[in-house]
Amino acid sequence: MTRLQSEQNPTPRTSLIEFTKHNLLILDGAMGTMLQSGHDAKAVHEAYLAAGANVILTNTFHHKTDEDIHAAVQAAKQAIGDRQAFVALDISPTGQLLEPMGMLSFDDAYAMFKRQVLAGVQAGVDAIYIETMTELGEARCAVLAAKENCDLPVFCTMSFEENMRTFTGVDIPSMALTLSGLGVDFIGLNCSVGPAQMKAMAAQLLQWTDLPVIIKPNAGLPKIENGKTVFDVTPEVFAAQMTEIAALGVAGIGGCCGTTPAFIQAISTLKRQQKPAIEIPAAVCSATKTVLLDRVRVVGERINPTGKKAFQQALLDDDLDYIAEQAIEQVEAGADILDVNVGMPGVDEPTMMASVVTHVQSMVHAPLQIDSTNPAAIEAGLRACRGKAIVNSVNGEEKSLREILPLVKKYGAAVIGLTLDENGIPPTAQQRLAIAEKILAAALAHGIPRQDVFIDCLALAAGAEQSIAYATIDAIRLVKEQLELKTTLGVSNVSFGLPAREKLNQTFLSLALANGLDLPILNPNSTAMLDTIACFHQLKNIDKNSDAYIQRFHQATQDSPSNDIAYFIHNGLQEEARAAAQQLLREHAPLAIVNEILLPVLDAVGKQYETGAIFLPQLMRSAQAAKAAFDTVKENLPPKDTVDGETILLATVEGDIHDIGKNIVKVVLENYGYRVIDLGKDVPAAQVAEQALHHNAKLVGLSALMTTTLVGMENTIKAVKQASPNTAVVVGGAVLTTEIAQRMGADHYAKDAIEAVAIAKKTLDNS
Ligand code: THG
Fold it and tell me: What is this structure's pTM?
């Protein structure tokens, strides 16, 4: 049998996708560990093909030059020879965090991915395979680089921990909605856990996407045997567990860390099974939160310069912290989704939109609504957004439909359709319904799903256009009854120019809700408006047992955001934290501020992280805000009284370039006041030992992400211990466990930055 491609000469896209319709894709297993045991890449490919793999991934997990990519693709193609199998270009994470969490810009990351894609295409791969992603923004960036630079099928798989989130907090529904919308051809899960843990994840993913699903787990969980890291699942057990996963209706299976050709052989006879039909819920999402549109959801309107001097000034000053505060305040007040509008004279709207979207989404979990009349600004916002956004808006004019709908489709967003056209806003409800129908038809023609079209029947100022203001309410009812679409409305427009605006707004909101309004756009700081929605949910039997109603209204006192430093640190507001620290210095001794205020607040933030109440981006923002406060206080400390502890040395061990984890630990340790020297990544053992001795470090922290670099870690521990027997070593990284750490001779294992702080306290503060 020759390769499908040469048989009928179809494109790789049609041949692979056609093949997938009738066959279960059998992907390969681990590459790194096989290479370590002496095989070359071509021999590893051959072993997986002989075991029954029909898709093999190139040996390009690490960033490679174009020549390396070329050679890797050739090795894979030669291994395939005349077999019926496909070569997929393996693309892995950059190893850096994107802005604003890290230093890597979206454009630089995009350029890195684009170069790999182009090299792979030139070398003749059949597909692009983006894998082991843990940050949805980076995964999106890689997918865009693939889709915009080739026509090949694109795979994207991400790695989730046992708590069903990636280490940056991405959840499966948000991944599924976002990547399905972007138009990947295959979506899936790889690494982190074994098939037993991955089954529930696979089942959830299948509920949220119609795309073919790929499942590539590790050979169970890591353990130590005879001094070596091994995984705890045998090929037989692996095959039994993968049989259950195949039965869910996945499109492809394979293995990740710890799997060998024996594992692939054991699953190679499994067959493709039908996936039960599903209905994907109407929803939008950020990277870390999916908001189901199964009840009224509040869209906060306050990120908008209209009529707000302070906000306008913030835009002119590029004061992103002020804007972030508006975001946090609205979410705390009850907004589910945030509208983002930055249009005003003197502001470069596309640039500002990208920057505000990037900043706001690092501060809150809420999905975003990109509000602009400028297509370039809408696209800039959609590119920067890490989840599934709402585009606000398109209208019935041909030009608007033509310019906006392709963007909505390309980025997989939802869209608001305003019921106006070349002739303005029609006076009657029937005419507005007709425009809604026209917008819906155009959206469907662009391939935008019906459930992603929300209609805005447009609230007019009742003081000025009293005779037609009520038509809005009738139009909502018609759209709901006849088109069954979600509806939205800028509610407070109704009261412009009238006194007692909130009374009219509240009554108008009640009427709109009763007639089918789903997504009111309003000021969530208006308690009256949010009260109305809570009451509506109670009356509609959506708020079962009146739980939310009672919780909202029974409490006599409500927690309001306070103005203190704890609030600023919790919310990652650097400038405010700095100013608050300055304020505190007037009344408190610097050391007291550190010990009695800053450290307890950081501990509280750490606890929230450990319990999953906040995620990594929030933890890091908080740490940075605390650092701002800490730096201010430190300037006022007499030199010998400094809270600087003794030195901690950090390094990612030789052979490993993945240093995100170590960088996070560095930020958090520094913000607890420790002096940290960071030796960087891929650091030779001898260098770590020498530096530890030189700085008289009491604690050395080592990180390694990959199984293959555990050897480097063990060597480094030995070297450090030899040079400085009294120096404690703490290790961390994806493949480590307490047991492995002990066997390697480390003093401590820290599963995250918060544990690293606890160990630093134990080691340094008592010494
Ligand atoms: N439909 C859709 N999108 C919209 C609107 C809509 N986006 C913009 C707007 N209307 C909704 N957003 C706002 C934002 C601010 C105000 C009202 C609606 C506002 N500003 C006060 C003013 O102008 O006086 C300033 C007062 C203040 O809040 O400080 O009221 O209809 N799809």
Answer: 0.85
